[in-house]
Design a protein that fits this description.
Elements lengths: L10 E2 L9 E2 L7 E2 L2 E2 H5 L1 E4 H6 L20 H19 L3 E5 H4 L6 H22 L2 E6 L18 H20 L4 E4 L5 E2 L7 H21 L5 E4 L9 E2 L4 H10 L6 E6 H6 L4 H10 L3 E5 L18 H13 L8 E3 L10 H28 L1 H9 L6 H8 L4 H11 L10 H13 L1
Parallel strand pairs: 1-2, 5-6, 5-14, 6-7, 8-10, 10-12, 12-13, 13-14
Antiparallel strand pairs: 3-4, 9-11
Helix pairs in contact: 3-5, 5-6, 6-7, 10-11, 11-12
The protein binds D-xylose and nickel (II) ion (2 copies).
The site of D-xylose (XLS) has 10 residues, from loops.
Length: 437
Amino acid sequence: MEYYQGIPKITYKGKDSKDPFSFKFYNPDEVIGGKTMREHLRFAMSYWHTMCAEGVDMFGAGTSDKSYGAKDPVEQAKAKADAAFELMDKLDIDYFCFHDRDIVAEGETLKESNERLDIISAYIKDLMKKHNKKLLWGTANCFGNKRYMHGASTSPNADVFAFTVAQIKKAVEITVALGGEGYVFWGGREGYETLLNTDMAKEQDNMAKMMRMVVDYARSIGFKGDFYIEPKPKEPTKHQYDFDSATCLAFLRKYGLDKDFKLNIEANHATLASHTFQHELRVARDNGVFGSIDANSGDPNLGWDTDQFPTNIYDTTLAMYEVIKAGGFVHGGLNFDAKTRRGSFTKEDIFLAYIAGMDAFALGLRKAYTLIEDGRIDKFVEDRYSSYNTGIGKKITDGSATIEELEAYALKMGDVTTNTSGRQEYLEDVVNAVLFG
Ligand code: XLS
Ligand code: NI
Ligand code: NI
């Protein structure tokens, strides 16, 4: 059965194409900087937004139907999977990502849920082979069910901790069975509403215990990929423990988890943390934990996760600049953790949204390379720190300068007379010239 009737296979037709069902900038097999665009970008479809979410918001019911013409949960899950692979084929997307509960509805008991997962993961495995698709990462939804009202691994209730670990164990098993290249921890309710009822230290110790158990188990069953923490500062809880890249790093280092983990950076979560997307990527890159990206965008005027498809070229360019400088994706990729607006409810809208997002990152990749080849930005930054290459600066860099030596140097100087301009406005103009020139 064809679920997206009338939608053609999307191909590259170039920037002058007026065909809405064509890529204007994403030319999968075109080589840029020694790799094809497909290899650079490693696009992934998010199962939850694309295949499950119906446009429900706080004020109204869904606007699009994601039942796939079936009622029985397992039959519906199969139909949904068929539709998912048709969509990936038509969009030429190689990867997908899912939560356990996205691929089949939760049962009455953990046992029933696990049995359903066995059926549907075997079904998906066949589809993956047939359609030549890969799993970028898997994860567990440990936030939707009401048992997680006080958190999952950070719940004050030990039964909830046990259930969480058991649920994640199964999610890891299916991720491994499907050849997943990554496994994500997004702490959906791992945080607090008020410190008046919260033992923050204990909750974080428990979260680390859960992660350690999962890492050890996953490695023991042959998982070779990356574990990711996905930072987010708030929503659903008032304060999420995985606040931002820097906070996650401190957590990973405190508990000795930093060797196994990288970060999955989401653009909208950066916005919520009052950072730029580029900032979060830079922190990850500078600390050797850049892993993967949840590609979306937020609305700076709003305080919540709008999960819009990314279309801002300034942002995608600077993001791809960081990705290139980090050496590119290894196990990670660009997962569209994005949903169409509630009013964009037709099946065509999903395709148009993916096309817009994929084109935005394809153009961002092209422009990031141009920015690097242009060289003015990199050169400027290099020159800006050149005082550390000679004389006293070199000694500071080497670590050989002593506090007394620096004092003597400063006393001799009397005052600093060598500051030069940061040239911010000029550099912004350079970026504009590269983007629009
Ligand atoms: C929610 C998160 C979630 C993760 C996966 O804000 O972005 O979708 O990516 O659990
Ligand atoms: Ni996400
Ligand atoms: Ni999000």
